[in-house]
Amino acid sequence: MCKVVTHDPVEGVRVQLASGLSVAAPSCTELKTPRRCAEEKTMLRTAAALTHDLKRPRAIIYWVDMLAAAVIGYGALMFAASARTTPVVIAAGIVSVLALYRALSFIHEVSHIKHAALPGFRLIWNIVVGIPMLVPSFMYDGIHNLHHAKSRYGTKDDPEYLSLALMMPSTLLLFILVSAMAPVGVILRFAVLTPLSLLSKRLRLVAIERYSSLTINPSFRRRMPTGDARKLFMQLEAAASVWAIMLLAMVAYGTISLHGFIVGLIIGSSIALLNQVRTLTAHLWENEGEAMSLTAQYLDSVNVPPPTLLPMLWAPVGLRYHALHHLLPSLPYHALGEAHRRLTAALGVGSSYHKANHPGLFGLVSRITRKTRNSDQPR
């Protein structure tokens, strides 16, 4: 069973199982009422106790899922790039977008899993997906974990949070559209900025702090990793730079046709747009910057559980259970569905757990859009 192994008035309670799975609970002093405090502890203990047998990643699922998505995605990309009829290009392009989006989404798992549990997975993911798509794992590794830090979530120190629901309506449109430039941005980052930054310490600092992480908070500045993480950063950056330069050279010399290159850029932009829409619906974005209790963080996050099927496409690799992931970030993606079923059955209808469930994409976008319109009204 579970037990409380540490308690800190700032960081709160950490509930840990004999199996090693642990979840962080906030201090009761952070909550408004003793009843809410008790409810939160109940939800955390129930979540830990019911899912302790789900924490081990199943290697066969990771490898087959990631590699199959990559093979299908690249195959469809090549088919779309070589096709000459518009309907075929569009059909193959859609398949490529969805498959490569799924393959890329494993960067989220790479940032969470213990690499000893999946030997070689991070390396092969970078070789097969991260480097070719110019999104090496260092752009998320060491960054995403800050978003899960209890004291950072939803604050100015969270690299993956903006109070989008409290901003101008035009901000949402800009938030979505700017992502379409991602393919051009990563090519410039690795083909141009990387080699130039070797000539200037100031430019190198800019490259590391501002252009080496997947974030949405424009004020965030990353630090250069240290130790083995620094070595991996340098290796992956060099590999991505070489590939980006080779890619442009192959287009310039005609090895890759301009038509094929443009098709690839469009597919890359579509992937980035789809991911940005998914990001928009991963949270409610209603926090104004203050530190939040774990329950508040959970309720600001989103689950889009079955029976709706489309989230398998626009929120793949477990991302449809984003609120549950914030509650139990150590669970592998393939276990989240079963964990959700167990918690849904165990926790009463009045539990906060159910309040993070939403029916679908369009309802979430509509909710956030309405919030921005209301925040735009004079007070």
Strand order of the largest sheet: 1-2-3
Number of strands: 3
Largest sheet: 3 strands, antiparallel
The coarse overall form would be globular
Helix-strand topology string: EEEHHHHHHHHHHHHHHH
Low-pLDDT windows of residues: 1-26
Q: Which structural class is indicated by helix and strand composition?
A: mainly alpha
Rg from alpha-carbon coordinates: 21 Å
Q: Oligomeric form of this entry? A: single chain
Q: What is the straight-line distance between the termini?
A: 51 Å
SS strand fraction = under 5%
Q: Give the proportion of residues in helices.
A: 55-70%
Total separate domains: 2
Number of helices: 15
Average pLDDT figure: 90
Domain Fatty acid desaturase: 91-348
GO molecular function: oxidoreductase activity, acting on paired donors, with oxidation of a pair of donors resulting in the reduction of molecular oxygen to two molecules of water
GO biological process, one term: lipid biosynthetic process
Protein name: Fatty acid desaturase
